[in-house]
């Protein structure tokens, strides 16, 4: 993309949550690859946080964006969930849904699918209320704190993972989804840059940040709104190693 890597100021000024949600999370049938990608995420998260999976007291979702789908499974196994994002608009969008404010985004179809995976699609309203109850706060976050507008190189990604690792105790878990080989994506008519990573680079970065990888799922799925070829997605569950 022209103009270099998208910095924090550009996200703050120009990232529009409703354009993003309409492009990547609408289930009206107009974006079938996006729907399949979302289902893949939900299935991975259900396997990770469902019966016999990860559980605990505290879960911190770093870079939530304006979305809540990523904690639908976890709200059954964690009692205190923090959502976070860099931009004010994304945090405002989250608060709208949590507080049931007029004009909040309708996540009902996505919540229903998450409940189907759990074997009870009829409890979607109960699921929404459960999630609202366990999300205790929505905070501002910046994984590149101290260097927010630096060029996006692999070292920056590695540093971000180390910053995230510092939030976890030994034995704590990192659950992350990474879109591979994608250098930019569209939100409305505006293009935003991202770091094009290979699966092996992600694996090595996670290991070097002090984690053991417990689960890695790889898929060649891609979005319809990108022209990039050979993109894919990598879903990783990793456990922080004990200190020296």
Description of the structure:
- The termini are far apart.
- The protein has a three-stranded parallel beta sheet.
- The chain is globular and about 45 Å long.
- The chain is built from eight helices and eight strands; from the N terminus they run αααββαααβαβββαββ.
- Helix 5 packs across helix 6 (124-134) and helix 7 crosses helix 8 (199-208).
- It has helices at residues 8-14, 17-24, 32-49, 88-98, 108-117, 124-134, 154-165, 199-208, and strands at residues 56-61, 78-85, 135-140, 173-180, 184-187, 190-193, 211-219, 232-240.
- With 244 residues, the chain is of the alpha/beta class.
- Strand 5 (184-187) and strand 6 form a beta hairpin.
Structure characteristics:
single chain; 244 residues; alpha/beta; 8 strands; 22% strand
What is the compact description of this entry?
This protein is of the alpha/beta class and 244 residues long. The protein is built from 8 helices and 8 strands.
Radius of gyration over all CA atoms, rounded:
17 Å
Biggest beta sheet summary: 3 strands, parallel
Can you give the mean pLDDT?
89
Helical segment count? 8
Structural class: alpha/beta
How does the overall form come out from the CA principal axes? globular
Q: In total, how many beta strands?
A: 8
Low-confidence stretches: 146-152
Q: What fraction strand?
A: 15-25%
Helix content: 25-40%
Encode the helix/strand succession as letters: HHHEEHHHEHEEEHEE
Give the end-to-end Cα distance, rounded to a whole number of Å. 43 Å
Strand line-up across the major sheet: 1-2-3
InterPro entries: NNMT/PNMT/TEMT_CS, NNMT_TEMT_trans, SAM-dependent_MTases_sf
Keywords: Methyltransferase, S-adenosyl-L-methionine, Transferase
Pfam families: NNMT_PNMT_TEMT
Protein name: Indolethylamine N-methyltransferase
